[in-house]
Write a structure and sequence with these properties.
The complex is a heterotrimer of chains A (about 270), B (about 290) and C (about 290). With about 270 residues, chain A is of the alpha/beta class. Chain A contains 10 helices and 10 strands. Chain C is built from 12 helices and 4 strands; from the N terminus they run αααααβββααααβααα. The chains are: A alpha/beta (about 270), B mainly alpha (about 290), C mainly alpha (about 290). At the B-C interface, α3, α4, α9 and α11 of B face α4, α10 and α12 of C.
């Protein structure tokens, strides 16, 4: 991990969501959602399917414009900015379904995160005498992140041929290589084997510990939530039902009734 | 003023026929989610099938029309069976099937050119003397085009509105995998889509080729007009296809009045780009809600 | 001998066209049907500037490139709001508009009569007149374009395009702006397509709008669909196949009328079979979506 520390110091980002509402036709996906993700903390969003968690991430990430309400990064209003502009404000987004670039090699998948607007100029493109050095540099940086997630030996395989779990790790490495200050992780451990889940949790924990990232996490696996979350928001039918520390939320009888109670013997 | 009225009338007549081939394109596009380039091939095929039946075999008109319709349905079914269905089973994306459809278009166009030659062919008709309505002159074949076009389009429209099967065609475009779950025969419905598309295009092809003849390379022209009309009106509604086709034809005809006949294509594609830019859902389309940001 | 060199020139011209379209089709995943429009704009710009204003080659070539880049930039802003079929349709619309304009703006382009007597390139008083000389000249241009495309294809820009092509939403989370990158691709692609346009106009010395039709655009797209795209090998394989095949058919001794149709039928069948069996084409790196 030491090797990945970047000389650039990323300013920590605090996320604040105010009164966000979003409807699809007559279906109310979100209403009056307020939440804050504090710097250096893992904030978990939990709740049943259809509670609006992913919709909220779409709103924060710029994929959906809210009907009303505001999204602030360090107090700056970023509501309605397109996703790439949100990303340029050091927000990393991990989609729920794996979204690697299947035709690119594993290493290239990471390299995409290093691209900067200044790299696209005609002058840079034509500077053949520097192309090789740049490519080598990108490759080396990519390899460090691949070692971080343990995929270094697959660097030249097409990303589409990795297993599902490996693709998820790659997607995480790719988004972290962007050096975000705020990470939006949508079910990072869903459909992973127990071993892969543990690996993913360890990686996320090391990111928080060593890089002081702010993390917003959507997660159904309560074990993972207990392992990682500093603060929990429980969403139900598009609104924040309860929020607080693990103890305050997970032991709240109403939450247990609404979320876990229905499924009976869910480990908690 | 009289010229204006005459051109408007001509535009409406052309529009009545355009509604048919636009709908022929629209059905396949909406239900298969395939940019049905082979509709151009279907059009040329139907023209020559009519030529074969009416002129070469000298069949009586009614028989020639029936023969053309039958051959056209067979042709449509053949495209579905030989090309579209294998790609569907393989789970290919719409872009891939579009390219295959382009391949069909190229092959059929040139096979017909090999068989019938590249020169223009005409079908003799005894409907020459024209009819004059309060200063406007229409040939008999124009009247036929108008009434058959409007009539067939309306009849199919009523079937779309009330027919049980037709509703499934729209569902097919949204979620084809759902149909078997609902107990609907997906493959038979696909065949139905192709057959209706084939019949609509065949009727338009007969009406047009009877009037102005044909050559093997007219398909692309009518494909473009049909697809532009569908996008112009809005891809999600049957009536919007017809309205798009009618409006487009009238605009083209009026372009002749305002500029000259040579610039009609500029009007067509200028209108297309204008609509795509400022009303992407089409003039009469409904804007879709964003279910899930992709 | 001149016959072979003539084929060589045509290979060079279509090679450059395929390389220019490759950027959009193979790297951007955007099936453009407007490449012949830029090809034509390049050809007409060269013809008109050198005939009416008497400008020398080293002015007209950059002028043609610049004009195509500008038009590509303008058109890109409109067309790149769309993807998939709507994009294809928008490019077809643009192609038709350019064609109709070339055909009907008779004051400028002489419409269907075409422009004849276009000068061959002249360098320091030495004209490139003979077919062998022209072949060498085309070869030089082709190698320059190939070198340029080689740089572009290995550049960070191409990497960002490939990322957008594979998954636009995921690429956006990595701070890549789709519209900006796609417009850049459109501008590069249009600018490069001007070069074969100039080459064609000055080689044949006569142009009319029928060389720059939708059919021609489809043919260029077919080169990439058959040969493959997303790398440099694919377009080259496609050009070799699609340009040489008709010449081979001619050798078999088929009458020209039949050969033309037969050639098209072979292309069509090949298109269907390849896209089904081998969606990356003969030597491509990208399977059309």
């Amino acid at each position: 991990m030491q090797s990945n520390s970047d000389p650039r110091i990323i300013q920590p980002v605090e996320l604040r969501v105010e009164n966000v509402a979003k409807s699809f036709g007559s279906f109310v996906a979100l209403q009056n959602v307020n939440l804050t993700c504090k710097v250096g903390q893992v904030t978990a969003l939990v709740g049943p399917n259809g509670a609006g968690k992913t919709t909220l991430f779409h709103v924060i990430g710029g994929n959906l414009a809210p009907d009303s309400g505001r999204v602030f990064l360090n107090g700056m209003d970023v509501t309605g900015l397109p996703p790439y502009k949100i990303a340029r404000r050091h927000v990393g987004r991990l989609f729920q379904d794996v979204r690697v670039f299947p035709a690119l090699s594993v290493a290239e998948n990471i390299e995409v995160a290093f691209l900067h607007r200044s790299d696209y100029s005609l002058a840079t493109t034509l500077a053949w005498w520097r192309a090789e050095a740049r490519e080598k540099d990108r490759r080396e940086r990519a390899m460090k992140w691949l070692e971080f997630v343990g995929l270094a030996d697959k660097a030249d395989e097409p990303a589409g041929e990795l297993s599902y779990g490996q693709q998820k790790l790659l997607a995480l490495a790719r988004i972290v290589a962007l050096r975000p200050a705020l990470l939006l992780l949508d079910e990072p451990t869903a459909a992973l084997s127990p071993a892969m889940t543990k690996k993913m949790v360890d990686l996320i924990r090391s990111l928080v510990a060593e890089q002081k990232l702010t993390i917003a996490l959507i997660e159904h696996n309560m074990g993972v939530v207990r392992d990682l979350a500093d603060y929990i928001y429980f969403l139900h039918e598009g609104t924040v039902h309860t929020h607080g520390t693990q103890k305050e939320v997970l032991e709240n009888p109403a939450v247990r009734e609404l979320y876990m109670g229905l499924s009976g013997g869910m480990a908690i | 003023m009289n010229l204006f009225a005459q051109l408007l009338g001509n535009g409406i007549v052309q529009g009545a026929v355009a509604m048919l081939y636009a709908a022929g394109f629209g059905f396949v596009y909406r239900s298969f989610r395939v940019f049905h380039i082979a509709m151009g091939a279907q059009f040329v095929f139907s023209c020559y099938a009519f030529y074969l039946c009416a002129t070469m075999l000298r069949l009586p008109l009614a028989l020639a029309v029936c023969g053309t319709l039958a051959l056209s349905v067979l042709f449509a079914a053949a495209i579905e069976w030989a090309v579209y269905r294998p790609f569907f089973h393989k789970g290919c994306s719409s872009g891939v099937v579009m390219i295959a459809s382009l391949g069909v278009m190229i092959v059929v166009e040139n096979l017909i050119a090999l068989a019938f030659g590249n020169e223009v062919k005409t079908i003799s008709n005894q409907l020459e003397p024209s009819i004059v309505f309060s200063g406007l002159r229409f040939t008999r074949i124009q009247l036929l085009q108008f009434f058959v076009g409007i009539g067939v389009f309306a009849a199919v429209g009523v079937a779309v509105r009330f027919g049980k099967w037709f509703k499934a065609l729209w569902a097919m475009g949204d979620q084809p995998e759902l149909l078997p779950v609902l107990g609907l025969p997906l493959m038979r419905l696909r065949l139905l889509v192709m057959s209706i598309g084939g019949i609509l295009v065949a009727i338009a092809a007969m009406l047009i080729s009877w009037d102005i003849g044909m050559d093997p390379h007219v398909g692309m022209h009518y494909l473009l007009l049909g697809s532009v009309a569908v996008f112009f009106g809005g891809t999600d509604r049957y009536w919007a296809w017809g309205a798009g086709a009618m409006l487009l034809s009238v605009l083209q005809s009026l372009a002749v009045w305002k500029f000259s006949a040579r610039w009609t294509d500029l009007v067509t594609f200028g209108v297309l780009i204008f609509v795509l830019l400022f009303r992407p859902q089409g003039l009469f389309g409904v804007s879709k809600r964003l279910e899930e940001a992709k | 001998m001149n016959y072979l060199l003539h084929i060589g020139v045509m290979l060079g011209i279509y090679g450059m066209l395929a390389l220019s379209a490759n950027l959009l089709i193979g790297f951007g995943g955007l099936l453009t049907m407007a490449q012949a429009a830029f090809y034509g704009l390049g050809a007409y710009t060269y013809a008109l500037l050198s005939l009416k204003l008497g400008l020398p080659f080293f002015v007209t070539l950059p002028a043609a490139i610049a004009l195509c880049a500008l038009v590509g930039w303008l058109f890109g802003h409109a067309a790149l709001r769309f993807r998939n079929e709507a994009f294809v349709l928008a490019t077809i619309g643009f192609q038709m508009i350019v064609y109709v304009t070339l055909y009907n703006w008779t004051d400028l382009t002489r419409g269907p009569y075409g422009i004849s007597g276009i000068p061959r390139p002249l360098f320091f008083g030495i004209g490139i007149e003979s077919v062998p000389a022209y072949f060498l000249f085309t070869l030089v241009l082709f190698v320059l374009v190939l070198g340029f495309m080689h740089l572009v294809c290995n550049s960070p820009f191409a990497l960002s395009l490939k990322a957008l092509r594979d998954d636009e939403a995921a690429a956006q989370t990595l701070a890549i702006c789709p519209k900006g990158q796609y417009i850049r691709a459109m501008v590069f692609s249009a600018a490069v397509a001007a070069v074969p346009g100039v080459c064609f106009a000055s080689y044949i010395t006569y142009i009319d709008p029928t060389s720059f039709t939708l059919t021609e655009s489809i043919f260029i797209a077919c080169i990439l669909l058959v040969g493959g795209s997303g790398n440099l090998k694919g377009p080259m394989a496609g050009v070799a196949f699609m340009v040489i095949l008709p010449e081979l058919l001619r050798f078999v001794g088929l009458p020209d009328a039949i050969a033309a149709n037969l050639r098209e039928i072979i292309y069509g069948v090949l298109l269907i079979v390849l896209i089904y069996m081998k969606p990356k084409g003969l030597a491509g790196a990208y399977a059309i979506k």
